[in-house]
Design brief:
Elements lengths: L3 H19 L13 H17 L2 H11 L10 H13 L8 H17 L22
Length: 135
């Protein structure tokens, strides 16, 4: 039993470099956020769907919004808005205010929650303030 542990360790050390050599490094492709123009186009199509209550603008809205559900960088809040839009962007028997509002609400949120977040710029230190690197 005592001899098994060291021989197992030696066996692993002999096999590990060969196993690592066979592994390929995976290149992660950069996927940019959707542009403001893309989001605005989806938003306008959703407004058309809500206003016209016809199949063509509603289908176009869903077709444009659906790929956002698979986007790897979009936050959950964005995907929630897209999901809500996909569920309600359908023609109905009557074009009630509730129906239009149910489509317009997630459409309005798209340009806010799905846009590329703005990174805050570091502000210049105020004169006379202690420098953090000096403390």
């Amino acid at each position: 039993m005592q001899l098994r542990a060291p021989s197992l360790l030696i066996g692993l050390l002999l096999v590990a470099p060969q196993a690592l050599a066979g592994m390929e490094l995976v290149q992660v492709e950069y996927v940019p956020f959707p542009s403001k123009d893309e989001l605005r186009t989806i938003q306008l199509k959703a407004f058309d769907c809500s206003r016209e209550n016809s199949a063509e603008p509603c289908e176009r809205t869903r077709a444009l919004a659906d790929p956002l559900m698979d986007h790897p960088r979009l936050p959950a809040a964005c995907k929630d808005a897209v999901w809500e839009l996909l569920q309600v962007a359908k023609p109905a028997a009557s074009n009630s205010f509730q129906r239009r509002d149910a489509i317009d609400k997630p459409a309005r949120r798209l340009t806010v929650v799905c846009a590329d977040p703005v990174k805050p710029k570091p502000s210049a230190p105020k004169p006379g303030a202690p420098n953090p690197s000096q403390t």
